[in-house]
Queue: 2 jobs
Job 1
Amino acid sequence: MAVGLGPMSTLHPVPGFELGIASAGIKRPGRKDIVVMRCAEGSTVAGVFTTNAFCAAPVILARKRFLGPVRYLLTNTGNANAGTGEPGLANATRTCAKLAELAGVPENAVLPYSTGVIGEPLPVEKIEAALPAALANLSVDNWADAAAGIMTTDTLPKGASRQFQHDGVTITVTGISKGAGMIKPNMATMLGYIATDAKVAQGVLQDLLRDASNKSFNRITIDGDTSTNDCCMLVATGQAALPEITAATGALFAALKQAVLDVSMELAQAIVRDGEGATKFVTVQVNGGATHQECLDVGYAVSHSPLIKTALFASDPNWGRILAAVGRAGVPDLDVSLIDVFLDDVAIASRGCRATSYTEDQGAKVMAQEEITIRIDLGRGTCSETIWTTDLSHEYVKINAEYRT
Amino acid sequence: MAVGLGPMSTLHPVPGFELGIASAGIKRPGRKDIVVMRCAEGSTVAGVFTTNAFCAAPVILARKRFLGPVRYLLTNTGNANAGTGEPGLANATRTCAKLAELAGVPENAVLPYSTGVIGEPLPVEKIEAALPAALANLSVDNWADAAAGIMTTDTLPKGASRQFQHDGVTITVTGISKGAGMIKPNMATMLGYIATDAKVAQGVLQDLLRDASNKSFNRITIDGDTSTNDCCMLVATGQAALPEITAATGALFAALKQAVLDVSMELAQAIVRDGEGATKFVTVQVNGGATHQECLDVGYAVSHSPLIKTALFASDPNWGRILAAVGRAGVPDLDVSLIDVFLDDVAIASRGCRATSYTEDQGAKVMAQEEITIRIDLGRGTCSETIWTTDLSHEYVKINAEYRT
C-alpha cells in the first residue's frame, strides 16, 4: 500500500559504521529481528527521544548513555519493552551487558532500542542467543539488510543516503528508519539511525540532529499517537580524512547540515508513505500564521481529523471538513473571513467560504491523486509550517484491530 | 449498530411546546427533514453553541436571538449552511423571516438550526415551501416524530423524558437530540432540544443548561471533530401551575436541575451509543488527578487514540496502548510509577506496569463486552472526570468515506 515508495536507492557505506543482522525468533521463527550496529572508536553520538512520559526501558537507558563513549547500538523488534517497569529496565541492561561482554567493551558503551508490542516481558534469552550471529555478520555493507531487520508493520524497508565532496574527500550520510503507525511528532513508533563519516563534536552533532528532526521526523503524523519507544540517533565516526566540522567551518558545515536534513526528510516521508493503510501521501501546509505554534495547531487539527482522513481515503473533496477542522484548532481570535484553502493549486475556499471559481470537478481531480497538498492560508501573519500525513482507510482499522492476533 | 440503544421511552408532552414535522426534499424526496418547534408566549430560552470559529450561519443567528422573546425554532437536516459566508447568513435570515411571516410573529422570534453537508448553499425555496405543512403539523405529541426528523447519519432517534411532582403539580422535562459523527465536546454535530413546562428566568435556565451540558454533551467524543453547527437549547414554557423556579426554591430547583441533567445525560449517551460505526460504548473515567483539566487531557488522549479505538473494536485488551496514551497526554511531571489502570474491575496495570494479578483472559473477557469502563487512576490528587466514547470500526470509515456519495 506504500504511496510512492519504491525500492530503496543505494545506501552508501559509512566508514567506521558496521551493521549486523540476526534472527532471535522473538515474534516468528526465522524473522530477522536483531540488528547490532558498531561505531568506530572515537565516534560521537547524538540522539532525540520520545516525549511520552511512559517511555520504554531501552529509551531510559539509551538516553542515559548516549553521550558516550558509545560503541554498539542493539535493536530488537517484536517487543517494545515498554510499560515493563523495573524488570524491563533490568532486562534492557542485561542484554546490553551480554553484548558488551561478547564484544569486549564497557557495558555503558552499548545502547538498547526496542520496538513492538507494549507491556510484554522482553525475551532476554532469545536475544542473548542471537547476539553472536549478529556480531559475526557485522559489515559496512549491511544497511539494506538492517533496514529490513528493524521493520515491524512496515511494508517496505526505508533508507536514504547522500554524499558530498570537500577538498577531494567524499563525505557520506546514510540512514535507515522504521515506523508505520503510532506516528506523531516527538517522536513516533519510530526508530531512526543515521551515520556519517564526518568528524563532529557531540554538541554540534546534537544541534544538527535536533534541527533536522524538527523539520522532518517531528512534522509527520499518521494517527496522532506518540510512541513510548521513539529514538533517532546520529553517529559521526570521524573516519573521513578531514578536520573536525564545526559551525565555523562554513560551506562544509552547511553541506553536512543539508545532507543530514535531506536524509532525515527522506526517511520521515518514507514513514508516512508507508503509513498503516495509507493510500494517500498528504502535505498539509499552513501559511500566514501569526505564530509557528498556531500553524502547527491548525496543521495537526487537519492532519488528525478522522473526517478529513476518511474523505481523503474516499477521494472526496469535502472541503467543509477542512474548514471545520481549522475552526476548531483553537487559534485565538481567528477571523475566518481571511482564510483561504487550496487543494494543490485549486482554490476551494476563499475568504472563509467556498471559492466562487471552484467546481467539484476541480476538487475531485486533485483528490483522486495519490499525492495531495492541502494549503491553508490564515491571513494573519508570516509564519508557516508543513506537516506530512496519510488518509484513514479500512486497511488502517484492519491492521490495528488485528495487530496482536 | 447502536450499542444498547433500544426504542425510545415515552416522551411526555410539555405543555406550551409544540412540534411540527415536514418534508422539504433537501437530500432525498420524502424524507422528513424540517422540524418546527413553537414555544408558548412568555417562554424563556437557554442555549449553548459550538466553539468552532467556523460556526455556521444558523448558529450566528440563533446565538444572537435566543435571549428572546423566542417563539419558533426552525431546524433543517441535509444541509449545514456552514462555510457559506454572507450569502449563508442571508439564507438563514430569509427562512426565519418566511416562518415569522407565516406564523405572524416578529422575525427575531425565529431561531434557525441546520445540520448536514458543510459548504453547500442552503436550498431556501425547498425549505420555505415546506413550512406551511410543518406549521399545520404542530402538536405537543410530536416529540418522537421530531426526534426522527432531525436525524442525519443517526441510525435511531434519540429522546428522553422525566417527570416529577411538586405540590400536586407534575413538571415535565423532555428532550431530543441528534448526532453520530463529528462529535467532540463544545459541542458536536449535535443538535439538542429540551423543553420543560416549569417557569424559569433566562439566567437561571442558562445556568441549568450550562451545568448539565458540561456533565453530558461536553463529555462525549466520537472522533474528536467539533462541528460548526452544534447547538443545545433548553426552553421553559412556564405553563405549569407553579411559581417561578429560582436557585432559592430549594427542593424544587434541585429536582428540576436533576431532571435536566438526567435528560441531558441520556441524550448525550444515546449519541455515543449510536456513534458512527460504534460497536462498543466506552466510559473513560480518570481519577486521582491534581486538576480537572489534566483528567480531561488524559481522558481525551485515551478517547481519541485510534490505536485504542481499533483495539476496542477488535476486543483486544492491548493495555499498553492505554499506557502510551496516558503518557503522551501532556500532564506535567507525570510520575508513571503511580498509575493504575482498570478494565471494569480488572486491574490491568498497577504502579505503571502490568499488574501481577492480570491475565490476558481477564482482559479479553471485559473487552468482549459491548459496554466497557476504562478507569485510570493518576495517583496525584482528588479530581475526577468521565468521558464517554466509542470504538473505531470499519463501519466508521465506510460511513465517512461515503457520506456525500
Job 2
Amino acid sequence: MTTTLSPSDAGAVVGEAPLSGVTVIDLSHVYNGPYATFLMALAGAEVIKVEPHTGEHLRSRGDMGGAALPFAMLNSNKKPITLDLKSEQGKEILRKLVKKADILVENFAPGVMERLGLGSAALRQINPRLIYGSSSGYGKDGPYRNYPAMDLVMQAMSGVINSTGHPDHPPVKSGAALCDFFAGIHLYSAIMTALFARERTGRGQTVEVSMQDATYCSLASNYGMLNARGDAAPERTGNRHGGLGVSPYNAYPTKDGYVVVNSPGDRHFNAILDVIGRPELKEDPRLNSRGARVQNFQLVDELLETWTRDRTKNEVADQMLKAGVPCAPVRNLREVMNDENMHARGSLQWVDHPELGRVVLPHTPLNFEGVPRRPLEPSLPLGASNEEVIVGMLGYSKEEFDRLVQQKIV
Amino acid sequence: MTTTLSPSDAGAVVGEAPLSGVTVIDLSHVYNGPYATFLMALAGAEVIKVEPHTGEHLRSRGDMGGAALPFAMLNSNKKPITLDLKSEQGKEILRKLVKKADILVENFAPGVMERLGLGSAALRQINPRLIYGSSSGYGKDGPYRNYPAMDLVMQAMSGVINSTGHPDHPPVKSGAALCDFFAGIHLYSAIMTALFARERTGRGQTVEVSMQDATYCSLASNYGMLNARGDAAPERTGNRHGGLGVSPYNAYPTKDGYVVVNSPGDRHFNAILDVIGRPELKEDPRLNSRGARVQNFQLVDELLETWTRDRTKNEVADQMLKAGVPCAPVRNLREVMNDENMHARGSLQWVDHPELGRVVLPHTPLNFEGVPRRPLEPSLPLGASNEEVIVGMLGYSKEEFDRLVQQKIV
C-alpha cells in the first residue's frame, strides 16, 4: 500500500475537502446540471457559473416568485459570471477559462455547444485534461436526441407517470422532479469517475448522461411485476408495493392525515399485531406468512386501518417505531423543512440569505468522514464574480475588464 | 498540463474502462447499495457480492416472482460469494478480501457492521487505502438513526407522498422507488469522490449517505412554491407544475391515454396555437405572456384538451414534437422497455438470461466517450463465484475451500 502522490498534488492533506483545488466551469441551467455542480462546490471545488446576460432560466423565470428558493437551494458556493458566448471575445474568455479548468458541465440540448464552436472535441483540444460532462433528455446519439425534454416529459416517456397514482384514478406525475435530479446526480457520478481515471491516464474525457437512462432502474419493482404477471400486472398500485409483493405496505388514514407502513417480514407483522392489540391473529393461516399476507392484502389493510383511524399520524408512527415496525407519518413540506434529523446532521441549515431572508437551504448529501462541512455561502446575484474571475483569475487588466463590461461581452 | 502517472498505474490506457483494476466488496442488498455497485461493475470494477447463505433480501424474497427481474437488473457483472459473517472464519475471510480491495459498500442499518466487529474503523485499520461507503435511511449520526427505513417510509418522511397526487385525491407515493435509487446513486457519487481524493492523499476514507438527504432537493419546485405563497400553496398539484409556475404544463386526455405538454416559453406556446389551428389567439391578452398563461391556466388547459381529446397520444406527440413543443405520450412500461432510443444507445439490451429467459436489462447510464460498453454478463446464482474468489483470489487450497463449504462458512 504505497502512497502515490503526483508532483502537482504534493500539498494534498487528509481531512481536506476532497475536491479542493478542482476548478469547474458550469454552463448549466435549472436543476439537472446545477445540482451536479452544487455537489462539486460543497465538496470543495471552485465552481464558476457562467450565465447569459439574461441569467440562466431558473434565475430569470419569474414563476410568481416560486423559482427564487430553488435557485438559492442549488447555487450556494458558486461564483457567477456573465458571458456572451455568441461573441468572439466571449468565446475567447471561455477558452481561457477552459485552459485553467478540470471540469466543464453543460445541459444544453445536444448540438448547442458544437454550433457555438465550443463542443467537447474543440475544448478538449485546448485542454486534454478537461473532463467535459453533458446531460440531456435522451442523450446525444440516439434517434430521439433532438426531442425537447423536461422533467414532466421525461416522467411520461420513462413510465413514471403511468406507474403513479391509484388504480382507479388517472395517472399522475411524481411530485418530485426525479428525472431532472436523477440526471444531475448521474452526471456528477460520471464526472467523478472520469476524474479518478484521469489521475491514472493523465487525460480527461467526455462523459454523457441522459435523463431517460438515469430514471430507468427506479421502476425495478414495477418491471419485476410486469415480468412475473404479464398483462395481469396492474399499471398503478396506489400506495401499495409497486410489485404487489409486500403486505402490509400501504398508506393508512389517521385522524389528521396518513401514515405508511411497510413490513415485509413475519417479525414485523407480529410486532404490529401486538401494537394493535390483536396478538391472537399471529397463528391465523390467512396472515401467518409473507405469502399469505400478500394474497390477503385487503384483509391486512382493513385490520390496520381499523386501528389507525382513531389516532393521529404521529401517535401511530411513535407506537409502531417503538416496536421496530417501519412506519412513518406522511409529512408535509413544512414538517420536512424543519426535520430535526437533517438539521442535526447539518444537511439542512437555516441561512440568512441576502435576497430571501431567513430560509432553509440544503447542504450536500455526500458526507466525507473527518472532513468538516464547507460553510454555506448564499447564492450570489448575476455576474457578482465577474471581476474576481476576469481580472483576478484570468489576468485581464481593470481597463480591459471595464471595456468588456461596457461591450456586454462580460 | 503534464501527465501525472503514478508508478502503480503506469499500465493504464486511454479508452480502458475507468474503473478497471478497482476491486469492490459489496455487502449490500435490495436496491440502494446494489445499484451503486452495479454502476461500478459496468464501469470496469471487479465487484465481489458477499451474501449470507439465505441470499440477500432481493434474491431470497419471493414476491410472487416479482423480485426476479429486479435482481437480474442490478446484479449483472458481479461475482457472488456466500459468507457467514457471524463466524470467526467468515470474518477472517472478509478481512482478507478487504486487504485486497479498494472499496467496500454496505447498506445495513447503522451499527450492524460495528456489532460484527467489521465497522469502518476496524476495516480501515487493516487497509488504510480502503474507501468504506455506507448508506442508510436517516444516516448514522442523527436522532432518527435507528428508525427502520425503506423506500415507502422515506417517501412519506421526505414529503414526496404528500406532494404527489391530484389536489382533490388522497396523497400517493411515486411509482418509482426514488428514495432507494437516489441514495444508491449518491452513494456511488460519494465513493468516486473519495476514490479521486485517494489518488492525491494516498489514503481512503469513510463516506456516508442517507436516503433522506439524497431525496430533499428533488422537491425544489414545491419548496419554492411554499416559500413564495406560504399557506396558500396547495399540497399537491396533480400533473400541473409543482410550483404552479408554468402553463401549459399538464397531462391531457387523448383517445387512447394521455399526453403531457410542458411549454414555458412564448415561442412554444405560439407553436402550440399553430398546431391546434388557433393562431388568432397569439394576441389574446389572457394568453400572450408567460405570466398571463399561469394566471389563466384553466383556460389554457381547456384549449389544449379540446384538441387532444379527438386524437391518439402518439398523433398528438408527433405533431407537437414536429413543431418543437416539449410533449410526450404517457407510456406504459412495455412501451418503455422497448424504447428504440435506449436500445439504440445500448443502455437497454435484450439478454438471454439463464434463469429468466430473454429479458430486457439495463446497461449503465454513465457513458464514457471512446470506452466501449462492457458486455453484460447475466446475474449469477448464489455462491457461483465462491471457488474463484476463495481459491483463485485469496489463495486458499482446494481442500481448505471444501472444508469451508462443508462447515457453511462459505
